[in-house]
Specification:
The protein is of the alpha/beta class and 477 residues long. It has a domain at 7-32 and 229-475: Rossmann fold, CATH 3.40.50.11900. Helices cover 49% and strands 12% of the residues. The protein is built from 18 helices and 12 strands. It has helices at 7-28, 42-47, 55-64, 68-77, 86-95, 151-156, 161-169, 193-205, 224-245, 251-273, 286-296, 301-320, 344-353, 374-381, 390-403, 418-422, 424-435, 454-475, and strands at 33-36, 51-53, 98-102, 112-113, 143-144, 146-150, 183-187, 209-212, 331-336, 356-361, 408-414, 439-444. A 4-stranded parallel beta sheet has the order 2-1-7-8, with helices on both faces. The chain has a 4-stranded parallel beta sheet with strand order 10-9-11-12, with helices on both faces. A two-stranded antiparallel ribbon has the order 3-6. Helix 10 (251-273) packs parallel to helix 12. The longest helix has 23 residues, at 251-273.
């Protein structure tokens, strides 16, 4: 039975579904569709009425649907290095035509993975074993092994049984059916891997690449030379989008999209700020589930309305003294980094078992771009976590620790995101020195499950719990 969700959460789910549906419909209607990095100024494409998909969000969804490993492997098989970002490998495999699929034998039957099925139980709830002492597996819950197939190879087959069978074996969830791009939008305020990733897609499909270069900022402010440099690139991007869309730039539409994006960002940050209450009215882990909305639909009024509805629900929880968290809050922690999307259950279970509520999420507020004019828009997009100095990064995080009443920090050393993970040892040192709180780090990956070790993670979580207990005892709490 599906879990009942609140109207706010359902509205957010509907927004994401609508974005993907409209993207497919636009492609089928012959309209140009694009792929965009998550922190490219979405207001531009939105003002032209261009439909855009987001490969980072798509890759996270593919990883969460347990197809991350086979897609990463497909990318490696065609020559991409295992050492590059898991999002990039999934996206590059997808751009080359690879899709998650059910594996079949030579007779066309799905090859079943018995380990993914549930064991049969009798009327008394006892597990059933066969005559050889092996567990009997419920045939209804057994799942096929995952593999990949290539849509271009399938399309080249003559119509017939094999073609139909292979088409039917392809996975059909929304992230695995995102249409191919007619243009790409890239902004390297996230990392420089973005640049080569999107250049590769543009070359493969022989399509326009619209690039916004954001210089690394070593100061606590964005200087005017950088603002002028980026604004000149926005002018070029507008001209390129006029050519792609066949429409002239409309300042009124752009202004409306900016208002929508600001409204969404403010509502999103308001939702994030409810983690400051003690106890929290919700489990901060839920913010990871809402990332898709703030990435894919920031410039849409529906996203703003959905986040405002969710914020009103959280306000009511505060008034009623209730929470949506499925466990009692014992300690409050900050989660540093991008989650391991293929291993969300593995991440959550030890936290729940120990009463650890995530009340600080560095990744989430990073999408709260709020501004009043074009220069401020440029400055807002310059403040991504990987594009600012370590001192600015420390200040942001320590403010979050203080405001959200954090007891400890759990750091994800993400193999896919080396710019983010590289300065984490110094961050951990500073958190303990400046804030007097313990930290613990674990190895993982945002998309490739081969780089995550559940036993190590559980050990590190337990170590953090013991350190927080000792810290609390020392303070006499």
């Amino acid at each position: 039975m599906a879990k009942t969700v609140s109207p706010g959460v359902q509205a957010l789910r509907d927004v994401v579904e609508k974005v993907y549906r409209e993207l497919r419909e636009a492609k089928e209607a012959g309209e140009p569709v694009g792929w965009s990095s998550s922190k490219f100024p979405c207001e531009l494409a939105e003002s032209f009425g261009l439909h855009v998909g987001y490969p980072e969000n798509q890759a996270a969804g593919i990883a969460a649907n347990r197809d991350g490993e086979v897609m990463c492997q497909a990318a490696e098989d065609i020559g991409y290095d295992n050492d590059i970002c898991g999002y990039a490998r999934i996206s590059l495999a997808y751009a080359a035509g690879y899709r998650g699929a059910n594996k079949m034998d030579k007779d066309g039957n799905y090859i079943i993975n018995p380990n993914s099925g549930k064991q049969m139980k009798d009327a008394n709830g006892k597990k059933v074993f066969d005559e050889n002492g092996k567990p009997v597996i419920d045939p209804k819950t057994r799942k096929p092994y995952a593999t990949t197939d290539n849509i271009y190879e399938i399309a080249a087959l003559p119509d017939g049984e094999e073609k139909t069978r292979r088409q039917n074996a392809l996975h059909k969830y929304r992230q695995m059916t995102m249409p191919m791009p007619d243009f790409v939008l890239c902004c390297n305020n996230i990392c420089n891997c973005m640049t080569k990733w999107y250049e590769d897609i543009a070359r493969r499909h022989n399509i326009p690449l619209i690039m916004i270069d954001v210089p690394y900022n070593e100061f606590d402010h964005v200087n005017e030379a950088n603002v002028k440099y980026i604004r000149s690139q926005l002018d070029t991007a507008i001209r390129q989008m006029e050519e792609i869309s066949g429409r002239k730039f409309d300042e009124d539409k752009f202004e409306q999209c900016c208002q929508n994006a600001n409204r969404t960002a403010k509502a999103w940050l308001k939702v994030c700020d409810y983690l400051q209450y003690k106890p929290s009215p919700f489990n901060g882990f839920d913010l990871f589930n809402h990332m898709a909305d703030v990435v894919t639909a920031r410039g849409r009024v529906e996203a703003a309305e959905a986040f405002e509805l969710l914020a009103s629900e959280l306000e009511q929880h505060v008034k009623d003294g209730t929470t949506t968290a499925p466990f009692k809050e014992q300690y409050r922690i900050m989660f540093e980094g991008i989650p391991c999307w293929p291993k969300l259950p593995n991440l959550f279970k030890p936290l729940k078992a120990n009463g650890l509520n995530i009340t600080g999420v560095v990744y989430a507020p990073a999408f709260g771009f709020v501004y009043n004019n074009l220069d401020e828009l440029v400055k807002a997009y310059c403040k991504a976590p990987n594009s600012v100095s370590i001192e600015q990064g420390v200040a942001w995080r320590e403010g979050l620790i203080r405001d959200n009443k954090v007891d400890g920090v759990l750091v994800h050393y993400n193999r896919s995101c080396k710019p983010w993970s590289g300065y984490m040892p110094e961050m951990q040192r500073r958190f303990t020195k400046d804030m007097g709180i313990p930290t613990a780090g674990f190895d993982g990956d945002q998309a490739d499950p081969r780089n995550f070790n559940a036993a190590q993670y559980e050990t590190r979580v337990q170590g953090l719990v013991e350190a927080m207990e000792a810290n609390a005892a020392k303070k006499g709490n």
